[in-house]
Design goal:
Distance between the termini: 28 Å
Radius of gyration: 18 Å
Helix content: 25-40%
Largest sheet: 3 strands, antiparallel
Strand content: 25-35%
Length: about 170
């Protein structure tokens, strides 16, 4: 495997680090400047403004991964002129499920779902869970429509032991 050079600073990424990113999706072996370079690269590839901080780092099962936050979804909708429509809402046993359709300016459609547990929830807690399911469905549909098959922040917060890490600039 050959070395990959960060064009901005002339840094060389170790082939083992690149292998870890490609095979394991693990950014933990990168130094802070390399993480920023990788972050900026991902933003560039998706046409996102890194200054708006569309991704966050998450420690998950011993790995460090990027995940998409609300800014990512908002930027993607604006850039690609996407519209979203809730197509279905349903409570199934202890789960509240929302289905969303994303339509691009070219007429292409994508659909996805968001689900949250609602057992024993009442009042504000139930209302927030319903909103969360909607947000989750929208984010998942937008990310899938744009080819960014990655975790979004609503999924990340439901994973036991997952924690956010700062992106050092």
């Amino acid at each position: 495997m050959t070395n990959v050079v960060n064009m901005q600073k002339g840094e060389v990424l170790d082939p083992k680090v690149i292998e870890s990113i490609v095979i394991n999706g693990d950014l933990s072996k990168l130094q802070p400047p390399q993480k920023v370079a990788y972050y900026n690269y991902r933003c560039s590839q998706a046409g996102l403004d890194p200054a708006a901080k569309p991704f966050d780092l998450l420690k998950l099962n011993g790995k460090e991964v990027l995940y998409a936050n609300a800014q990512c979804t908002q930027q993607l909708c604006a850039i690609h002129k996407l519209s979203t429509q809730v197509t279905h809402r349903e409570k199934m046993d202890d789960i509240y499920l929302v289905s969303v359709r994303v339509t691009g300016a070219d007429g292409r459609l994508s659909e996805n779902q968001g689900a949250v547990a609602v057992a024993y929830l009442k009042g504000d807690a139930l209302a927030n869970a319903v909103l969360k399911a909607t947000t989750k469905a929208i984010r998942r549909a937008v990310l899938a429509h744009c080819g960014l098959g990655m975790l979004d922040e609503t999924e990340a917060e439901t994973i036991p032991g997952a924690r956010m890490e700062p992106v050092v600039s």
